[in-house]
Amino acid sequence: MSxxxxxxxxxxxxxxxxxxxxxxxxxxxxxxxxxxxxVLLVRQRWRDAVFLTVxxxxxxxxxxxxxxxxxxxxxxxWPLPADVSEYSFPSGHAANTAALVAALVLLLHRRxxxxxxxxxxxxxxxxxxxxxxxxxxxxxxAGWLWALAWVVLVRNVTKGGPG
Length: 163
Hints:
The protein is 72% helix and 0% strand.
């Protein structure tokens, strides 16, 4: 089954898919991340604040650069909105959401319910990008993998003592 076959099978231009895509744009994610950062700062959890800022911020800043390096065109099975970027690999929605979700789960000390909820959020965010035909499956997978790897690396570097 080709990536185009997967997109055709999942195609769904519903209000739900568009709402999920809108909710996982960078602006709403940045608001959520900003609230978490503010809470960490108020609680004087400096190391955790650095972790969140570097872990999530680098993904958000570097992903557009990666798109320019790989220059993979977006799927052209259906018309795309004019406001989407030219390139699709790796998926920014997938990477940006994965970075924030992973950071939140790790800040919650890997609690099982948070991890399961995070996995559901990532799957739904990825589904929306595929259903709308904005990314190939490998774009989404690459976004998840690089963001998760980076956030885990940053957590391992910054976790050395009380937050």
